[in-house]
Write a structure and sequence with these properties.
4 copies of one chain form a homotetramer.
Chain A lengths: L1 E2 L2 E3 L3 E15 L3 H11 L12 E8 L10 E8 L1 H16 L6 E4 L6 E4 L11 E5 L2 E8 L2 E5 L2 E17 L2 H16 L4 E2 L11 E3 L9 E3 L22 E9 L2 H16 L4 E5 L10 E4 L5
Parallel strand pairs in A: 2-16, 6-10
Antiparallel strand pairs in A: 1-2, 3-5, 3-6, 3-11, 3-17, 4-5, 7-11, 8-9, 9-10, 11-15, 11-16, 12-15, 13-14
Helix pairs in contact in A: 1-2, 3-4
GO molecular function (chains A, B, C, D): formylmethanofuran-tetrahydromethanopterin N-formyltransferase activity
EC number (chains A, B, C, D): 2.3.1.101
GO cellular component, one term (chains A, B, C, D): cytoplasm
Chain lengths: 294, 294, 294, 294
């Protein structure tokens, strides 16, 4: 199958369940909301070595936030226990500390809830306050008052939706991946947690040579090893591969993000092949076949 | 004492020793080096709740990097053992994974060294290679080859240099803090690790009411508590205070950063008072008196 | 009348007809479309001294553009004859020259049309080509091929919708204006053509002292002249005023932009008064009363 | 000759004299200085169709500006008469109108001077004021006071320094050009006036087919015409070419910018050939041979 002249492999992405929280950070301007969100979602590319996976889901206008100020929605993804710990730490250290911020639950209808009791920071000077119908705590701080909800919904979402952008050289593949990330940014409910949304060094589980490694380079997809590895999956003429990894609130939005991303990548000259990563289908309960995206 | 009509308090910042590594991240363009650096230095505002403190020190031209490509220098600060762990994790998850990156030691003359053995990711396909006179490992990855040094210098630096920007209202204080951060960005050897470089909720050690809290709001510096707290340190007419926290390679660069930052903040209309934070002088070995900056 | 504690003056904005073209610029990534759009809309703040008024209306996903690539929609506003000249020059010099761009008409249903014959640049090597159902010209250029439509709709729109954001000091007013611009960016069909969307030096028609000046400072709204000018319109306690000027495709979108912008500005601490600019109501056919926005 | 495996053509760039002014724009923060500078240097890619060529030369810290605030230096280039007109219009419409700006002469030692009398905007309320040893006018405006010098040095500089970045495909050439622009940004005294600093559609003087055209596509450098044009200059295997055009204060800085830019482009994978543009050497008095750059 081809799209805009690019071969779409007959492959599927294999993805996994994860717990997800969605947090709305507002601030005096969009830029200040973004800076807090950026700090709060850093060091969060992959659950293999980071304490969680996190990213910016999208921007919200004042009409869409409880306090009428511009906002940024972020997703934080991890196992249930780790998720609570990470939401607490990241809100406490990266958002409560940031200028002019407020924080609201982005999943008010979720049944599962976690408590994030930042109000202890107030040392007794804090008090309860309603903002936009939300029950919040106001904490006196040096720049005035921090206001935030402390009860956050979490849902069982999807981690590891993915596809591979393969190029006739490295820059074509990179710009294809960039175009994909641009397109995915417009899809609600998803994040691409890697740097700039793009993975340059996709991995396989474990290691053949170094048994202590939980993950190692995926040699079958390494263009420089194409002639050295028996069962290479690098198509002829491909010199670089980028992986786009997508986490999201549910299967539908991950699927939509994959569709938007693949189509966008295929518009970039020099992108020649699209595939996806899986582990044979026995590990993850979610499967997204590339050819079902069109 | 006044500078540009702004009162400079007779106070000093009290700062602490920390171990610091300086890492040079290069990439195909400055923007891609920045994105990796941004991810690698996220969730790293304060050692109180983050695993380390980290930030971007500055940008480097191709003339200044071992591989002749544009680069970004970052500082990572923590206790010695934690530092090694964090450098390993952040390089492995946020830089090795990022498109087109390479990594080099930014403190080649430091005597203390840490080993960051990313080459195990290569699963045996990796090999040694010299780049710009540096002994590196090349690891075949999906986008081509990752190249990096694995031996990094660390030095005993300074954490917690600081000053307070006080404004007649919140926006004046915020823009004063922003101008300070702009100015500090031009000083070598330092970072401002908080979101956008600015702290909106400076803390005191411990808590009077909640004994389990390692830190809590610094009520003496909370403008909304000015009439409620006996020994308030909020000057009359001050409605908001931002703290700029500076970590650096040595006392000299932290002092220079404080000087540049304070002077810049004083140029912003509505900034009325500059002070600094300390703990009585018994905790930290470094003292930076504000009036010595001029 | 008050909104969020901010006084809304009983005033109206007086606005004028203008011809408007809406042009869609696409490129390989959103960033490259933006850079071309940014260059094409520069030096275009005010028709008083610039050859036109122009700005970025919004970003478009690949689903919304004729060639399936990410895009930016810009508006260019001027008198009819000047508009054609400016569209030609700006597309020729700032978009055709930019990397990977294509150009499409953003008002395909408009009855009035202008021809923008860039294909002569092809020196005979150009040829016709259909893209997404649009009749285009493809021009061989150094980076490959430029593709663009040459027939653009224009409509009679509205120039000079406006409001004033008044603050208790300069930084409060500036951040209020910034929040307004953020909010207006989410409204379709409008631009704010001044630098960063904000005017720091609103003007009156003509000059009392220098007869050769077509416009001069609006002394009634100058805070530093509050005590020197008899009929000052600066409310007590106001130290700085910013004007947001809005051009748009029709009255509805200008009104919506004013409403979103005013509400957003009122959320910023230190913003104390909102007014609007007019010339007594005899010059412009469009009137937008501030109190009708709520 | 090769550099990093890239062929450096035995060609020279042919450049022309131009008058240049260098203007320092300061503002409350670097970002606000940038926004004014960005607006003031828009619609200014090429003197062929724009009223001038202009761009951002670099950023200045508060230590380097007359008023101690962060600044941006811009260059505006044109014939002498046009230059004065453009400096007047661009400062009046794009900088005086921008929030919190001030303007200073960036060539105080130049013998040739132009007068830019913005103070008439003050309608008699303006007054003279010294700032940082510079004789300025202060004009009461809505956001407070605008302050600026009115006497600007101009020098005879160099326009049209250039080189071509040729890639094995479009994305490689584009990223090579981007890396070049990144590198040139660090060189003082120069600008790259095209969108994002890069030209996608380099031109020849005049047109063979359309006599009314002052410039048209340079078919000898069009990759898609390689097989159709007799005397093509597109090397085998080249699929896209970008031109970097440099204007500067003197020959030395243009030469340095070319050197930095070429070396940076050669570090990008897929860049295969560097050349430069000239008109046979009879038109422009300045010649920069590529091989002299190394």
């Amino acid at each position: 199958m081809e799209y805009n002249g690019v071969t779409i492999d007959d492959e599927y992405a294999e993805a996994f369940p994860t717990w997800v929280s969605r947090i709305i950070i507002t601030a005096v301007t969009e830029d200040w909301a973004y800076r807090a969100a950026n700090e709060a979602t850093g060091f969060a590319t992959s659950a293999i070595g980071c304490p969680c996976e996190a990213g910016i889901e999208g921007f919200l206008s004042g009409d869409e936030t409880p306090d009428g100020r511009p906002g940024v929605a972020i997703l934080i993804c991890a196992g249930k226990k780790k998720l609570k710990e990470q939401v607490v730490e990241r809100l406490a250290e990266c958002v409560l500390t940031a200028p002019t911020t407020a924080v609201f639950d982005g999943l008010p209808e979720a049944e599962e809830r976690i408590a994030v009791k930042l109000h202890f920071f107030g040392d007794g000077y804090e008090y309860q306050k309603e903002v936009g119908g939300r029950k919040c705590w106001a904490i006196p701080i040096m720049n005035g008052e921090y206001v935030g909800e402390e009860d956050f919904g979490i849902v069982k979402g999807v981690a590891g939706g993915n596809f591979f952008v393969m190029g006739e050289n490295q820059m074509a593949a990179l710009m294809g991946a960039q175009a994909a990330v641009d397109a995915i940014a417009g899809v609600g409910g998803v994040i691409t947690s890697f740097p700039g949304g793009i993975v340059g060094s996709g991995s396989k589980v474990g290691s053949k040579k170094y048994k202590f490694m939980p993950a190692s380079t995926n040699e079958k997809y390494c263009p420089t090893l194409r002639e050295k590895v028996e069962d290479t999956k690098v198509p002829e003429g491909v010199k670089a591969i980028y992986e786009i990894v997508i986490d999201g609130l549910d299967e539908d939005c991950v699927k939509e993000a994959m569709a938007e991303g693949v189509r966008a990548a295929c518009m970039v000259p020099g992108v020649v092949f699209i595939s996806a990563g899986n582990f044979g289908g026995n590990l993850g309960p979610f499967k997204f076949n590339l050819r079902d995206l069109f």
